[in-house]
Amino acid sequence: MEIKKMMKAIVKTKRESGAEYKDVPVPEPNPDEVLIKVHAAAICGTDIHIYQWNKWAQENFERSFSPVPRIMGHEFSGEVVKKGVLAESIEIGQRVACETHIPCGHCYQCRTGDTYNCQNIRRFRDGIYGEYAVVPAKNLVLLPDTMTYDQAAVMEPFSVATHGASMVSMVGDTVMVMGCGPIGLFIIKIARAMGASYIYASDISDYRRKLALDSGANQVFNPIECDVVECVKKLTASLGCGTVFDTSGNVDAIKQGFKILRKCGNMVMIGLPSKTLSFEDAGNDIVWKAAKIYGIHGREILKSWEISKGLIGSGAVNIDHLLTHRFPFSQYETAFELAEKGMTGKVILYPDNIEKD
Ligand SMILES: [Zn+2]
Ligand SMILES: [Zn+2]
Fold this sequence. Notes:
There is one protein chain. The protein is α/β, with parallel strands linked by helices. The chain folds into 2 domains: 6-158 and 299-350, Quinone Oxidoreductase, Chain A, domain 1, CATH 3.90.180.10; 168-295, NAD(P)-binding Rossmann-like Domain (Rossmann fold). It has 12 helices and 16 strands. It has helices at 45-52, 55-64, 108-111, 149-153, 155-166, 182-193, 206-214, 228-235, 251-260, 282-287, 303-313, 332-340; strands spanning 6-12, 20-25, 33-42, 70-71, 75-83, 95-98, 132-136, 140-142, 175-178, 199-202, 219-221, 241-246, 261-269, 292-295, 323-328, 346-350. Strands 3, 5, 6, 7, 8, 15 and 16 form a 7-stranded mixed sheet that branches. A 6-stranded parallel sheet has the order 11-10-9-12-13-14, with helices on both faces. The radius of gyration is 20 Å and the shape is globular. It starts with 5 loop residues before the first strand and ends in a 7-residue tail after the last strand.
C-alpha cells in the first residue's frame, strides 16, 4: 500500500476555542510504534472540552497531552500499514483499535501488576483525527472479523463501562445509572447482558433518556421533573438499588445516587465530580450504609478490552444504535456543535476519502 507524504487532519492549533482542518505530514513510526490508516474515530467528552477550550482544558491540557499544535482525538480504529522494527508481533494489514493510556512501567503500581492505575500515565505523542496515526505497538488490540471499524472506534469508552461493570455482580439485582451519556448508556447495555433485573436511569436530556430506554432501561427519570430518590424508593419497596453507577459527575446526581444505594450496596463512580462533593449526612449515606465505593479511572489494561471484544464481537451487546451520528473529518464543526448539545449518542468521525465497512 502506498503511503502519502501529507494528510488532512483536525488540528488544535491555538490555545483557544475551535480547531483547524489542515494538511500535515504523515507521521513516521518510531521503532516501538506502528502507523495506522485511520478508518473511524469517535468524539469523547475530553475532546469537547479541548475543542471548546473551557476551564478544564485550560488547566489540564498540557498535563495530559503534548502542547499545541496537536492533532485532536484519541478514540479510533484502523488498519496497520507500517511498523517500527521492534513491533514484531504486529502484522501489516491487521485491523486494530488502541488503548489510549501508556503506563510508565516503573512506578509502584506498574511494578505491582496494577499498570492501569499507573501514576505517570502518558498519552499518544499526537492525536488521531487524521488519515494516519502513530501509536505504540504494545497498546494495540486486534479486532475480531465480526466487529466493524465504527464499533471498534468506541471500544475505548465502552471498556471504561466494562471496567466499572466488572467490579460488581449484577445478576438478578436492581441497578441505577445516573447520567445517560455514552458511558451510562453502555453500562445499561452491559448490565442487561450481565443479568441485572431492573435497571433505572436518570438524565436531564430527553434525547438521552430515550436512548436509555432503547438500551434496556426499565424506567428513566428526569431529575428536573421528579424526585428521583423517591421514585426509585417506591419502585424498590424502599430498599434501593444494589449497584448505583454515577457517570454524570454532577454532584447532585452523585448525592442522589448514594441515597438510592441499598444498604451494603456498590457505588461505582465514573463521572468526574463537577464541583466540591460534600455530604450533609455522610453517616447515613455512606458509613452506616456500609457502602462499597469504587472509583474508576480508565480501563483495566488490557483486560477490559478483551471483555469488550467478547461482548461486542459476539453480539451479546449490540451498540450500533448508540453510534447515532457520522461525519467526515471536514465537517468537524457540525459534529462538535451537535455533541456539545448532548443531542447525540456516540459521534463517529472518519477520513473524508475512507470507504465504509
Ligand atoms: Zn475517551
Ligand atoms: Zn507506572
